[in-house]
Amino acid sequence: MSRIRKQSEYEKTFAFRFFRWLGGEKDAFVGNMEMQPQKEYVEEEATIEERMKDRKQVIAEAYDDSHNMELRFFNVLYKIFSIVFCVALVFVLILTVSHLPAVGDPDRPTSNIVSETYITDGLKDTGAVNIVTGMILSYRAFDTFGETNVLFIATCCVMILLMIDEDEIKKNKESNDRGFEPKNDVILQVVARFLVPVIFLFGIYIILNGHISPGGGFSGGAMIGAGLILYVAAFGFEKTEKFFNEHVYKVVKVTALLCYGCIVTYYFLTGANGLECLIPLGEAGKILSGGITLPINIFVGSEVACTMYAFYALFRRGGL
Amino acid sequence: MAALEWIRFGLVVFFVLFGVTIFFLEIFGVYRFKFVLNRMQVAATGDTLGIGSCLVGLMIANGWNAASAKMAFVIVFLWLASPVSSHVIARLEYTTDDELLDNCRMVTVEEAEAEGDDENGDI
Q1: Residue A298: exposure state from Cβ atoms within 10 A (0-12, 13-18, ≥19)
Q2: Alpha-carbon distance B31 to A18, whole Å?
Q3: Which residues contact A239 (CB under 8 A, 6 or more apart)?
Q4: Residues B93 and B100: beta-carbon distance below 8 Å
Q5: What is the number of domains present in chain A?
Q6: Rounded distance, CA A15 to CA A102, Å?
Q7: Number of domains in chain B
Q8: Measured CA distances, A209 to A129, A303, A320 (Å)
Q9: Which one, of A117, A136, A303, A140, lies nearest residue A211 by Cα?
Q10: Are residue A134 and residue A282 in the same domain, yes or no?
Q11: Mutating which of B37, B88, B89, B95 best tests the A interface, going by the most A Cβ atoms within 10 A?
Q12: What would the pLDDT profile of A91-124 be if each residue is shown by its tens digit?
């Protein structure tokens, strides 16, 4: 019992709207939801002129290659060598890929004694029940030392770029919009007062249990850093500076890196020369065990926590 | 004991289905509502009530052990974190949006109580 409806009647039905949506004829969100279309980028004529002037000035004063034969020669050579270098790199990489062994090949060089030794002898050598932590902090402690250095250098670079002097802040108080954030939110403060100690405790637990259960310095340190950030967001920098200021930051960060370096150097020197290491391995599964794994976990954790907090503080107000 | 098992199964099904329904409403509402604070409120409701209900269902299904205790901690943490983060976002919207009062009406707590419970919904 089908009948053909009129077009005006059909337009009121759900099916009409559904097929219109399916065909993409009308966007259901246009006119209904708060949104702004992206503006087309229009460059002002003054900026274009300024740019052309700058370029002419640069060519005329710095790179005058119509009179400077040396520079012209260098430019040509630079292009040739960049092309040669790229082609050579592509060639080398493709050659390497073509010589890689097939996946799952039992004779491939990676399926050697190393991974088997890690699994069978890991507990005996490092004293850590968690094989992964024992591996990255004992067998490969040098590699992890590099990672910790990367964190240190990254924060140093961000400090160079974003750190603002106190005098500068006072001088430009009018143009500084960092003070206009919502502050002293009572709801956030009450929750933070309850959550921050729990987060700190959990982070410390993860760090200290790194050699027994999953976790370790990196994840636990990230947790402590998140707790610090929550505290700052709730209570502001003035309260945080009472227990975590620039001085504490410097001392913790440098001490952690130095101690890590010393421990790893000692461990590798004794291990490489067949000497007896004075750090006891302890009884596996106990909290005070795992040889160098536990202290290194603590140092890595403090390093990561400081890094996270430093990034947040530097990006938010340009200082620690 | 079979009856108890059936009751437990029924409770699990009820809580999980309730949570999934709330999730569905949340997604529907996030795309349906036109005003930003309405959308945010719907998202916060789904995150608290939906996840809480689903986790309660899973706790009943899992029985009385350590994993259930962890799920209870997850519920506590989510119920602390989700509403507070929504509150902070709403406050940021309130401080940054100049045209906010074109879209909604502002009342104090006393005025809202005077107007009665039935009108509190469309503040």
Answers
A1: buried
A2: 16
A3: A231
A4: yes
A5: 2
A6: 54
A7: 1
A8: 10, 17, 30
A9: A136
A10: yes
A11: B88
A12: 999 999 988 877 777 777 777 788 888 888 888 8
Give the CA count within 13 Å in the CB-facing half-sphere of A78: 6
A151 assigned to some structural domain: yes
Q: Is ipTM beyond 0.90?
A: no
The domain in which residue B73 lies consists of 2-122
A31 DSSP assignment: T
Task: Decide if A177 touches B, using CB distance below 8 A.
Answer: no
Question: pLDDT for A224-245, tens place per residue?
Answer: 999 999 999 888 888 888 888 8
A34 with B91: Cβ contact below 8 A: no
**Chain A partners within 8 Å of B84 (Cβ):** 187-188, 191
Residue at B51: amino acid letter = I
Which alpha helices (DSSP H) does A129-245 contain, by range? 131-134, 141-162, 166-171, 186-208, 217-235, 237-240
Euclidean distance between CA atoms A21 and B31, whole angstroms: 15
**Nearest Cβ partner for A182 among B35, B80, B95:** B95
